[in-house]
Each structure stands twice: as C-alpha cells, then as structure tokens.
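Sequence dictates fold. Next comes a concrete instance:
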Amino acid sequence: MSVRDVIKKSVLESSAYNQAITGATIFTFIVDLLLAFFVGLLIYAIYRKFYHGVVFSKNFGMSLVGMCVLTCMVTLAISTNVVISLGMVGALSIVRYRTAIKEPLDLMYLFWAIGTGIAMGASMYILVGLSFLIMFLVVLCFSRHPSVGNAYIMVVHYQGDEAGDAVERNLSHISHTVRSKVMRGDETEMTVQLRAKNKNLSFAEKIRDLENVSDCTLLLFDGEYHS
C-alpha cells in the first residue's frame, strides 16, 4: 500500500470526513451560534457607545453582528467536514469585496467581529472572553484621552507682507503649521493647518478684521482628502 493510499484511507475513516450529525454536534452548533450572536451584540454596543464620527451607520453596526455569526458558521462547517471545507475554500477564494473602509477604527471593529466569529466557531470560549476584555480596555483607554481640540484648515487671502506678518502674530498662541503660500499678483493665499477648541475660534474673526485681509475661511479637517 502506497503512502497516498494510506493518507486517503486515514482521511476517509476519520471523524472529520463523517457527515453524520449527532445530537452533541447540533448542541455545539446552537451554543456557538448563539454565543457568537451575543458577543456580536456586545461589539455593536461598544461601537455605538464610543463612536466619534459625524454620522453613525446603523448598517455597519448590524454587519458587525452578522459577521460574527457568519464567520462562526463558516468555521463550524470547515471544522466538521473535510469535503465541505475544501469546497468552501474554493468558493470563498473567488469572492471579491469592493466596499471601501475609510475609517481605520471601523476596520478594527470589523476584524474584531471576524476574529470573534472564527474563535467562537472553534469553541475557544476563553480566547473569545480574553480578547473581548483586552479590546474593550483598549477602546476605553484611548477614548478617555482624546486629542486636545480639533484640527482645522484655514485659508487666508491678503495683500502685502505686513498683513501676512499680522496673520502670523495672531496665530502665535495657537499650534499651527503653514502648509502653502500661493501668490497671485498682489494677493497672497496662505493655507494654515492648526488645532483649536470649538469655543476658542475668535482668532479667525480677528484675522478677518485685519487691514488688507480680504477673507478668512476656516474648515474642520477630518484627515481625509476627496478628489
């Protein structure tokens, strides 16, 4: 008997190849799927509680719960039957997802949900509990220490070097960086990136009222560039 025949026989006689569903298997399926659903709800609750974006996406939050259950289902199917696992690997390899994740934290929550579903499908309950506790502490710690103030982009149009110096003097008490200066004839367009609190934006009014300053535009900067 060749090595190939030995491997084939061992696989066919193994319990992983057996397609019979016992009562214990059904019980394991129910427990793992229900726990995956419950932990997915907890991840959704944490995501909603500590969300700092502009518009909360309920659809994305719902997908976190569904991702836990679906990945748990896939892991259960792969771990109980070799034939199904091989077919599922081939089927999932041709799937392409085109949804763009712009927020890095959303990507973290998505991988959290996927990893939880995989570990739950493998019945690694202690690993799921420990990872959930650690991730919750990470989210809690960083949410308690937010950055001081918001980032803004300010665009000022002025004429003359004296007006430019006056703008710089009004920004001396604020953390700022001059990003660009565009000179068109006598007029200069200066772009400044700065950080300030929402209740402390009176400096923009002072800059606008300076002599030879035609206008001052202040934009909240969220770190994204749109083409």
Q: What stands out?
A: The mean pLDDT is 79. The first strand starts at residue 150 and ends at 159. The CA atoms of residues 49 and 75 lie 29 Å apart.
